[in-house]
C-alpha cells in the first residue's frame, strides 16, 4: 500500500468533535443518532462527520492544528534533544486545519496567502527537526520502544522503513568485507 493512501485513510478516520444541530432518526452501522438531542456533542470519524455536516445534521467543531498550536509544537521541538510529544493524530489535524480553515478562505486574499506561507514555514521547520531526530535514531539503530512513544503513526512508519533500508544496506556493506 502506498504511504499516501495509508495517510489518507488515517486522515478520514480521525475522530473529530461534532455538535448535533437537530434531532434526527439516523443509524449508520452501529452509530445510532436517533436517541440524541440537538446540541449533543460527540466524536465521529471525519468521513462520517463531513457527510453529516454537508447534510446540515452536525457541525464539525474541530478545526485542527492552528498557528498557535503549531508554533508551540515547534518551540518544544527546538528545545528538546529528543522528539517532543505530539498528539497521535497531529498530522491529520494539520491537514484538517489546512482543508477546513486556511485553504477555503485564501482565494483572492493576499493576507491569507501570506498566512499559508507562514504556516507552511512553521510546519516545514517542525518536520525538518523531527526528521533529523528520527534519522539519528534509525542511523544509530536504537530499538524504538523508548523512542517510539513520542512518534506519531506516520513517523513510526517512516522509522520502520528507514530502519529496514539501513539494515539492508549495513548487511550489504558487511558482506563486502566478508567476501560474500
How does this structure look, described?
The chain has helices at 3-13, 46-54, 67-78, 90-102, 110-140, 145-148, 153-177; strands at residues 15-20, 27-28, 31-32, 41-45, 58-60. Strand 2 (27-28) and strand 3 form a beta hairpin. By secondary structure, the protein is mostly helical. Strands 4-1-5 form a three-stranded antiparallel β-sheet, covered by helices on one side. The chain has a two-stranded antiparallel sheet with strand order 2-3. Helix content is 58%, strand content 10%.
Task: Name a few traits of the molecule.
single chain; 180 residues; mainly alpha; Ribosomal Protein L9, domain 1; Methane Monooxygenase Hydroxylase, Chain G, domain 1; 2 domains; three-stranded antiparallel sheet; two-stranded antiparallel sheet; globular
- What is the percent of helical residues? 55-70%
- CATH top level label of the largest domain: Mainly Alpha
Individual helix count: 7
Provide the CATH architecture of the largest domain.
Up-down Bundle
The mean pLDDT is 88
Which residues form runs of ≥5 with pLDDT under 50?
A: none
Global Rg? 21 Å
Q: What's the CATH topology name of the largest domain?
A: Methane Monooxygenase Hydroxylase, Chain G, domain 1
Query: What percent strand?
Result: 5-15%
**Overall shape:** globular
Summed up, the domain count is 2
Structural class call reads: mainly alpha
Say how many strands there are.
5
Amino acid at each position: 500500500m502506498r504511504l499516501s493512501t495509508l495517510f489518507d485513510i488515517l486522515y478520514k478516520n480521525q475522530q473529530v468533535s461534532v455538535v448535533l444541530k437537530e434531532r434526527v432518526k439516523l443509524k449508520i452501522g452501529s452509530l445510532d443518532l436517533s436517541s440524541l438531542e440537538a446540541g449533543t456533542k460527540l466524536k465521529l470519524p471525519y468521513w462520517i462527520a463531513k457527510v453529516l455536516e454537508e447534510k446540515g445534521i452536525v457541525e464539525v467543531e474541530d478545526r485542527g492544528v492552528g498557528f498557535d498550536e503549531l508554533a508551540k509544537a515547534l518551540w518544544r521541538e527546538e528545545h528538546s534533544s529528543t522528539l517532543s510529544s505530539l498528539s497521535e493524530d497531529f498530522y491529520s489535524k494539520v491537514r484538517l486545519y489546512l482543508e477546513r480553515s486556511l485553504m477555503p478562505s485564501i482565494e483572492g486574499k493576499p493576507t491569507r496567502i501570506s498566512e499559508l506561507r507562514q504556516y507552511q514555514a512553521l510546519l516545514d521547520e517542525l518536520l525538518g527537526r523531527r526528521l533529523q531526530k528520527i534519522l539519528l535514531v534509525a542511523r544509530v539503530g536504537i530499538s524504538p520502544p523508548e523512542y517510539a512513544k513520542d512518534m506519531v503513526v506516520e513517523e513510526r512508519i517512516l522509522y520502520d522503513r528507514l530502519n529496514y533500508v539501513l539494515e539492508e544496506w549495513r548487511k550489504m556493506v558487511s558482506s563486502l568485507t566478508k567476501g560474500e
